Amino acid sequence: MDPDFRRDDRRKHMEHAIVLPPEILGYIKGFPITNTLLVAWITMAVIIVISFLATWKIKLVPSGLQGLFEMVIDFAHTTVYELAGDKKTKVFFPIVMTFFLFILFANFIGLLPGFATIKFHGEPLLRSMNSDLNMTLALALTSAVLTHIFALYYLGIVEYLKKWFTLNPIFLFVGLLELVGEFTKIVSLSFRLFGNIFAGEVVLATISSIFAFVVPLPFYFLEIIVGFVQAAVFMMLTLVFLVLLSEKHAAEH
Amino acid sequence: MEILKQFGINPVLLAAQVVNFLILLFILKKFLYKPILKVLEERRKKIEVSLKNAEAIEKRLLEANQEYEKILNEALEESRKILNQSKEAGIQIMEESKETAARIIQKATEQALEVKKTETGKIEQEVRKHLGALIVLAFEKVAGKAMKKDQKAIIEREVKNLS
């Protein structure tokens, strides 16, 4: 057997379940519309509509959606406040909260029926947003860039550079390591989210192809937990990075 | 960069997702976080104010209760004082009236005695006035003869001198 054939065979065999890149549904003026991008837009629309509904008739005595969002936002706000302090909370909270809501809703919407089963020109029309590295990498990059922007803003250029470069050779080495760590952050953030959700998709597809009734149910529960945990992890890590980088470097001895 | 190709990384898609995120951030900040954080803050303030109010009300209630008790005690004392005073006054009035009555009785008795005295005197005088003539008349009846005028005068004078 020649290796090419084997690879082809394997690719054909796995194609219906495991495809790493997102499927392109079509082009608008040369701009590729992938199924994950479509889901990202749907997710945004859902979040925006729900938040409008929650704050449409905002009352001092909460009820329904307003109460739910108050609970979530109050909890997150307290968490950010405890870590970042009064002044930075105002800036950090919306960023961190948006990461959480976007990822959480995307993960949950990705579990709805119709995903990966409705076909459009032979490709699945919908695909869980975070099972595409494009999307998670974009979020991770946004997180990292925002982190550094706020570090620069709060510390000033001199203090910011001092974080990485010092005259002390040992700390210079540590600083360089940390600089590498900054790139690792992006990779770990994006691949963690991507890996979890993509793996979930694959597991669900595989289990469903074995036996589609009742059996996938526990895995759906598992995916709900994973979806929440990953959103929370992304949020907390972004928050921690934001806080750590925007703080002055500990005095060196 | 072979790995990026395998994952289907496309800079345009990355940019699209970044834009998605920024739009979402902007909209949610304006329409979700701001109103909800505002309402939470408002509620926190309101609760703080009402708790303070409740405390003040409780304090005032306590004060009012104390005031009420104080007033009640004062009124009780006052009434007791008034009662005592009126009792004393009553006793005094009774004594005074007794005294007055005694005085009046004494005066009346004295007056009566005096009246009696004068009356007796008058009667005596009256009796004395007529006694001479009576004696003369009796003497005339007994003796059977009329007395002389100067004899009569002597008798009357003597009678008058009796007393």
Automatic annotation (TrEMBL), chain A:
Primary location: membrane
Protein's membrane topology: Multi-pass membrane protein
Gene Ontology biological process terms in this record: proton motive force-driven plasma membrane ATP synthesis
One Pfam family linked to the record: ATP-synt_A
Transmembrane segments: 37-56, 91-116, 137-158, 164-181, 193-214, 220-245
UniProt entry tagged with the keyword Disulfide bond: no
Keywords, in A-Z order: ATP synthesis, Cell membrane, CF(0), Hydrogen ion transport, Ion transport, Membrane, Transmembrane, Transmembrane helix, Transport
GO molecular function: proton-transporting ATP synthase activity, rotational mechanism
Protein name: ATP synthase subunit a
From TrEMBL, chain B:
Coiled coil keyword on record: yes
Keyword Metal-binding: no
Membrane topology: Single-pass membrane protein
Keywords: ATP synthesis, Cell membrane, CF(0), Coiled coil, Hydrogen ion transport, Ion transport, Membrane, Transmembrane, Transmembrane helix, Transport
CDD domains: ATP-synt_Fo_b
Gene Ontology CC terms: endomembrane system; plasma membrane; proton-transporting ATP synthase complex
An MF annotation (GO) of this entry: proton-transporting ATPase activity, rotational mechanism
Transmembrane domains' residue ranges: 12-28
Coiled coil (residue ranges): 37-111
Localization terms from the record: Cell membrane; Endomembrane system
Pfam families: ATP-synt_B (PF00430)
Similarity remark: Belongs to the ATPase B chain family.
Record text on subunit structure and interactions: F-type ATPases have 2 components, F(1) - the catalytic core - and F(0) - the membrane proton channel. F(1) has five subunits: alpha(3), beta(3), gamma(1), delta(1), epsilon(1). F(0) has three main subunits: a(1), b(2) and c(10-14). The alpha and beta chains form an alternating ring which encloses part of the gamma chain. F(1) is attached to F(0) by a central stalk formed by the gamma and epsilon chains, while a peripheral stalk is formed by the delta and b chains.
HAMAP family listed in its UniProt record: ATP_synth_b_bprime
NCBIfam families tied to this protein: ATP_synt_b
Function: Component of the F(0) channel, it forms part of the peripheral stalk, linking F(1) to F(0). F(1)F(0) ATP synthase produces ATP from ADP in the presence of a proton or sodium gradient. F-type ATPases consist of two structural domains, F(1) containing the extramembraneous catalytic core and F(0) containing the membrane proton channel, linked together by a central stalk and a peripheral stalk. During catalysis, ATP synthesis in the catalytic domain of F(1) is coupled via a rotary mechanism of the central stalk subunits to proton translocation.
Protein's UniProt name: ATP synthase subunit b
Natural source organism: Candidatus Daviesbacteria bacterium RIFCSPHIGHO2_01_FULL_41_23
UniProt gene name: atpF
